[in-house]
Amino acid sequence: MLLGRSCTCPAHLPGMIRIWYDIINKVEPPGVRSLSERQTASVPQVKFYTKAGCHLCENARDMLDDIAAQTPFDLTEIDIRGDLAIFELYRYRIPVIIVDETIVIEGRIEYGDLAKAFHV
Description:
The chain is α+β, with helices and mostly antiparallel strands. The protein folds into 2 domains: 1-32, no CATH class; 41-117, Glutaredoxin (3-Layer(aba) Sandwich), CATH 3.40.30. The protein contains 5 helices and 4 strands. It has a 4-stranded mixed sheet with strand order 2-1-3-4, covered by helices on one side. The model has no long low-confidence stretch (mean pLDDT 82).
């Protein structure tokens, strides 16, 4: 029994006890995401479609490395030869860079255009 009550579920805990219960059990207030969720949500998700031996892809990868030094993002590099459907879709378009599910740039890429896509 806690403070004269037989129920110890969080909804019935009074004031300060409820706060301590939430802190100890890492309960987030309604509508609040955890720090790791906020960080993940704010970092752009980047897909880089490429293939070995593509000099345009190598140049684009170098540019992505330069931009990564200025702004964080999660990069997934995809070799188009690993999937026939992806190969057919991007074979004449690589390198292709997609940020948060939107194609931002492809083909012959200039650094200024790529930097603009990342807002740097």
